[in-house]
Structure formats: C-alpha cells, structure tokens
Hints:
- The chain has a two-stranded antiparallel sheet with strand order 1-2.
- It has one domain (about 35-485): Growth Hormone, Chain: A (Up-down Bundle), CATH 1.20.1250.20.
- Helices cover about 75% and strands about 0% of the residues.
- It is an all-alpha fold.
- The two termini are about 25 Å apart.
- Strand 1 (about 75) and strand 2 (about 80) form a beta hairpin.
- The chain is built from 25 helices and two strands.
- It is found in: Membrane.
Amino acid sequence: MLDHKDAIEHEEVGTPDLVSHFANMPRGQAIRKFWRVFLIGILITSAGIYAGYTSAIPGSIVANLGFIDTFATVTNPQGRRILDANYVGLWGAISYVTQAMAQFASPFTAQKFGLRFNMWLFTIMKLVTIITEIFSTSWWHFLLAKAWNGFAAGLIGTSLLSYASEITMPQMRGTVLSSYAFYFSLGQLASAIALDIINRTMPYDFRLAFYSQFVFLGMWLPILILLPESPVWLYKRGNHEKAKRARARLIGNVEGFDVEHEYAVFAQDIDRSVALSAAHGRFSMLNCFKGTNLRRTLISTSILCAQNFVGVPLMLNVVYFFSLVGLTNAFTANLILFCVLLFGVMVSFYLVDKVGRRPLLLGGISVMAVCVTIFGGLGFITVSPTIGNVMIVLMALWALSYAISIAPIGWIALVEMSTPSLRVQTVGIAALMQSCANVLFSYTVPLMLSPQYAGWAGKTGLLFGGLAFCTLIAVYFLFPETKNRTYAELDELFEAKISARKFSSTKTAVSTANDVLQASRAQ
Length: 523
C-alpha cells in the first residue's frame, strides 16, 4: 500500500474524498447496468470497420492484375510489368508522414474545438481519400490518395479513442477500447474478402474495391451525427450544464444513479488531474515531457512503436511478398491472415480485462519473436508451394499472438497511460512517434523484399526477430498493469513512481477509500 511518504506530494492535489457508488461493481454487472454507455462506446469504436477497410484496400490491392496493369512502371527480368518497389514504399511512407502531421496538429484542434470536430475531420478526410482513389490513373495520383488517408488515420487517437476512453467506466474501458482493434480487423477482413472475389472473378475491375468503401461511410455517419460532445471537454471549458446533459444522454436512466454525486466524482477526478499537471508546470503539450508525465508518454509511445518492431511491416505485407516470390495464393493467404486476426481480437475482448494487459503483451511478443525469426530462416530456402504453406502457418500463429496482445493493447495504452487533463496531448505525441517509425519501415521494407533493390525476401524476418526480442525486454521493465484501475489510481501510482512490475500488487489510497466505503455499507 502507498503510505504517506509515497503519496502525491502536492498539497493542492490531495487524496480523493469522493468515490463512485459503482467503483467496485464487477465488470459484467457494470456492463449490464450501464448498458447504454457501453453500447455507445462500442458504436464509436465501430468506426474501426471504416478505418480498417479503407486502410487495407490501398495496401493489399498492389497484387491485383488490373492495378498492376494501370500503375506498373518497370519490367522484371522475365519481361513482366511490375510495380516499382520505390513507389510502393512511397505509398506506404507518405500515409505515415501525413498521419504524423495530423497527429501533431490534432491535439490542438481537439482542445480548441472538441473531440467531435476531430471526428468530422476524420470522416471528411476518408471521403476525400475514396474519391481520389476512384479517379487515380498514375502512381502519383495514388500517392495523393494515400496522403489523404494518412491525415484521416492521424485523427483516430484524438477523436474516437479519446472519446470512448473518457465516457466509459474502468470496468468496461478495456473491452470498449479493444473493440476498436476488433472492428479494425473486421474491416481488414472485409477488404481481403472483397479483393479475393475481385481477383477471382474480375481482376481488372479493381476500382470496385474503392467504390465499396462508401458502404462503411454510410454506416458510420448516423453514429457521428447523434453523438454529444465529450463531457470531459465540456467540463474543462466551464460548460457544466452541457457536460451534465451530455453525461445524461450517454448514461441514460440508471436505477440508483445519483446524478449529482457521480458528477462530483467526475469533476473531482478531472480537477485532480489538472492540478497534477499544473504542479509540474505550464499546461501544454510540453507538460507531457515533465515529471511523471514523461514516463507515461514514453510508455504510450513505446507500445505503439513496438507494432513495427515485432514484424507488422513484414507479416501484414503478405500480398506484396507472395506476389514477388511468385506464389499464386497471395489473396488467399491475406484472407486467412485477417480471419485469424479477427478471431484473436475477439478473444482479446475477454482477456484484456480478465488476464490483464502486461501478461498478454509479454506472452504475445514472445511468440511473435519466435515466429518471425523462423520465417526469416525459411528465407534461405528456395520458395515453393510447400514452403509457402509453412510461411502461411507461421503468419497465422504470429497474427493470433499479435491480435491478443499488441493490436488491442497498443490502442488501450495510448489512452490509458495519459492523465485525463493531458490525454489528447499525450495521445497526439505517442501516435506521432509511432508514425515516425511507420515512415521508416513502410518505405524500407518493400525495398528489402524486392529483388529490384535489396532482395532479402523472407530473410527480412531475421531483422524483425532481433527487434522483437529487444522489444520483449523493454516491455518487461517498462509496461505496468492497468487492469481495473481508475484514472485517479493510475495518477497516484505514477506519482509515487511505482515500478511497472509492482503496479498490480500496490494498494492505492483510492482503492483503500473504496474498501472503507464498502465496509461501511456492509455494517
């Protein structure tokens, strides 16, 4: 337990006096009682279908015959027209460059205009992406489409995920945030099915895949239109009545819910977080790098960046890789991969709040490191259909481990590790750092794979194997367990500089207050 010496030193912050009447409610009971806000959280993250589908289509379509026929600019030694690996790398890199730009700017727009403003920007940028893809006829047209798509992706953290994190209870927060990874994988799976059908039936009508994206836009728009502004943003702007009305719309009519008391708890947590930030210095993005906020920013950044280090740029590039080595089942392999990803993310719904974040990360990264290393070893063997099938099995095992660990937890950590008053700023910085890593790998990996340049092919897996094992060591020492912790508890633990390995076993002042409250009710 944190004693007085370990407690937060700033007198103006103090220990929370108010505790929610539902703080100790079990997860299942909390979800049933507060079903409305849980459902709204799930609907918000359902935009992941839209994001996953529109993000996967441009990346996977590079093996489509009609697409290659339209955008190919070079010829291989066998006389076959192929895509220039340099352009493929640029298509991947530009989306992360513009994503980084949006991630840098989006915290300012969210702070100034609200989270719904960023949601609308996200939606508009996705619409512009689709239109640009439809009318693309040269490689630089498609480059422009990828740039617009990057702008949209850069708004996700400071809109969808920040909003979902702010409105949900700690008991359901992990499940709701994990659902974004599920929806994103569902969108990717839908894109794999669409491309496989097009490739089998009408390979030269590849633009049908672009038109199909309007379906998901139509599914997301009604949700966005009906959402109120974030109560947290309204409260920090001093609009208390609007904040109360927004909470009422989100929570609904819940039996036994004391509106004034719960709003006081809500206000106390925000005020406490703002006081913590003020204690470290001026309230701004620079504040994310001061005091304990620096540690929280590093953790948020490291998990997102780790997605690159454990093999995502290689293993999710299956369509391009298989097309380079001459295997004809590229789209089938892609379909299998996304089916496994979707299944794994569904399993993670239960595991992230039951098992915890830290054990899943350590176990998942361990398996991914082994899989990608073996994959790299197979690169020294001449690729045949049999070797291709072995690679698919390794990719599937890697994908399952990825889907129950870094895929959902990377997004959860992005919003959980930041203090409420600095969440938007921390999310923007963390996502910006991830984009910088993405730019590096998305441009260089196609060059590593292609015989036009480095020609490493499958041996590229050895590079990611080494990086994955290094990531495993870093996560062991840096990443704490946040399961079932309120934001007030996380503030307390970080302020007391508790070791990442001791987070789950440390008793906080907040949890002690909850125990006292429960004991008094039992008497």
